[in-house]
């Protein structure tokens, strides 16, 4: 929606050369404080704001569950905020899309011995694909979210950068944002110094969600009980099997690989065998939980697939380079070497070995000495050296 008359106008806060009133922005409203503040702030600046909330899973179950998002109470809260600030608000039923694009794959990946991150897939396949398409159909100039991450205009287009508040940074969960999506997205909270600042803004706008707790769990996994969800989605899938050491010796039995995670030490039921043993690998095909000493958890070479590259140019031709990587959302970026092995595959060599690297987790790339996110990929199964 280029406006030649605005060529000499200064850019507004969303980067368009036209008055806010002539700039339409769809705000993805989850019902939480972050996205509510984004909607209120943009409305206060005079933008043409439309709020959209997604219903992602069963309304009845959602009403009984606290600490989630995109469910019954949250939809109600988003609607109240929209009424308070005076913007149109729509609720879209994406339950089927969410189940097909996120929940089903989550179940299959878990059964295959991986440790998936469904929040990333939700951003990739539902919020930043289907919802973004809806925003375009509403003739929006851009879509804004309450994520803590920054977007800067660089010499080769929009760049993704970590949030100013490192404690709130959500770049790990947004690495799969494509360049096309990034050009259309805006993240107004990325530059805030703290969550306290966000809550203060919510209070200033008189929003009912100002003191609402942050969502903690994966929305469809009550109290973090992954195994219970998998057993419900795939009845009979929790097949028992053997706990074996690195040489294949049977040490005990288990009640299903879905009850274990790589790096787990407690609850194995094989105590009294000398040095502590940890889950090193899960083999769903043979129904084996492979355990070993803590040293066996250390990994330096990490293969990744489905690489999303935001570093400019052709990824396969990018060549070897030193970067920073994050292989777990709770850890800071660490030095590594990136070696592309194909159009969307790579090998990561960590400068220092990491423990508990698990297939199904994300490996996110950052530019050394910078806050810029270069993209990332999904960790795949590696060969175990015995």
UniProtKB/TrEMBL annotation:
EC number: 2.8.1.13
Annotated function: Catalyzes the 2-thiolation of uridine at the wobble position (U34) of tRNA, leading to the formation of s(2)U34.
GO biological process: methylation; tRNA wobble position uridine thiolation
Catalytic activity: S-sulfanyl-L-cysteinyl-[protein] + uridine(34) in tRNA + AH2 + ATP = 2-thiouridine(34) in tRNA + L-cysteinyl-[protein] + A + AMP + diphosphate + H(+)
Principal cellular location given in the protein's record: cytoplasm
Any Pfam family the entry gives: tRNA_Me_trans_M
Organism superkingdom: Bacteria
Name under which the protein is recorded: tRNA-specific 2-thiouridylase MnmA
Ranges that cross the membrane: none
GO function terms (MF aspect): ATP binding; methyltransferase activity; tRNA binding; tRNA-uridine 2-sulfurtransferase activity
Gene3D superfamilies: Adenine nucleotide alpha hydrolases-like domains, HUPs, Translation factors
Keyword Iron part of the UniProt annotation: no
Keyword field: ATP-binding, Cytoplasm, Disulfide bond, Methyltransferase, Nucleotide-binding, RNA-binding, Transferase, tRNA processing, tRNA-binding
Record InterPro entries: MnmA-like (IPR004506), MnmA-like_C (IPR046885), MnmA-like_central (IPR046884), MnmA-like_central_sf (IPR023382), Rossmann-like_a/b/a_fold (IPR014729)
Active-site residues annotated for this sequence: 122, 219
Family that this chain belongs to: Belongs to the MnmA/TRMU family.
Binding-site positions, ATP: 28-35, 54, 146
Domain tRNA-specific 2-thiouridylase MnmA-like central: 238-292
Natural source organism: Paracoccus alkenifer
Boundaries of every tRNA-specific 2-thiouridylase MnmA-like C-terminal domain copy: 304-379
Cellular component GO terms, alphabetical: cytoplasm
Compartments (UniProt record): Cytoplasm
